[in-house]
Amino acid sequence: MKLFMEHGKIYVTGLGPGAAEQMTFQAGNVLEKCSVIIGYTVYIDLIREAYPDKVFLSTPMRREAERCRMAFEEAAKGKNVAMVCSGDAGIYGMAGLIYEIGRDYPEVGIEVVPGITAASGGAAVLGAPLMHDFAVISLSDLLTPWETIERRLRAAAEADFVICLYNPSSKKRADYLRRACALILQYRSGKTVCGTVRNIGREGESCRILSLEELMDTPVDMFTTVYIGNSNTMELRGRMVTPRGYRDV
Ligand code: SAH
User: Fold this and answer.
1) Does residue 134 line the site of ligand 1, with CB under 6 A?
2) pTM above 0.85, yes or no
3) Distance between CA 233 and CA 221 in Å, rounded?
4) Contact residues for 155 (Cβ-Cβ < 8 A; gap 6+)
5) How far is the CA of 87 from the centre of ligand 1 (A)?
6) What are all long-range contacts of 167-171, with beta carbons under 8 Å and residues at least 24 apart?
7) Alpha-carbon Rg for the chain in angstroms
8) Over the stretch 106-116, which tens digit does the pLDDT of each residue have?
9) Is the beta carbon of 162 within 6 A of some atom in ligand 1?
10) Ligand 1 center from residue 121 Cα (angstroms)
């Protein structure tokens, strides 16, 4: 007989951008193994049907810390818990916060299970925009001061990185992409090849290839990932392609 109850474990799991076939086998196995699945409502709804016998728990957006505590409480009861995120759990996902809140629950184990992040999912839709050095920058100033975001945009633009923007807009931040483009235009030509991909791997997936000047006046929403090419990025076969190097092939 066990005298002490065994603790469960938290698996911080990236589900990929949307489609079930873009989820890794590892993530699928983890969901099978866990009795409790916790996540933001939108992601839970994407997988609920496929796992009818699981307990699903959720909190609304902006209640992330509460969601993490919920996961630790369940694991402390001895359950294996999947804390699910879209894309990769360690890229603007929940992995970091789980470790931070995990300070209060040293007895509960934590494992991070990676997934296809929006940057690579969307890159495949556009062609091959991320073939050379690139910087991923989130335009959300909920957790980061806008000055820091601007500083990083400037540095990436100045160093000719391909730039991939997450959280390019929201109702409250309607003109942030415009502001980011204006800043990048100080370092890069208005003809720079850019792309947007909306609903990667989900119903209604769509993409566009356009110039930096055009991008500046393009409305986007929070389900979109934006790509700004480097000085060598070009359009080939109607796709966005960054050459592997800066030397002629
Ligand atoms: N952990 C996620 C990112 C969360 S931040 C990942 O690794 O992909 C949320 C932002 O990611 C969105 O505003 C959008 O810019 C991007 N994103 C996530 N999923 C997407 C999808 N299916 N289609 C387009 N963009 C997506």
Assistant:
1) no
2) yes
3) 24
4) none
5) 6
6) 167/92, 167/138, 167/139, 167/140, 167/222, 168/139, 168/220, 168/222, 168/224, 168/225, 168/226, 169/139, 169/219, 169/220, 169/221, 169/222, 169/224, 170/140, 170/221, 170/222
7) 20
8) 999 999 999 99
9) no
10) 9
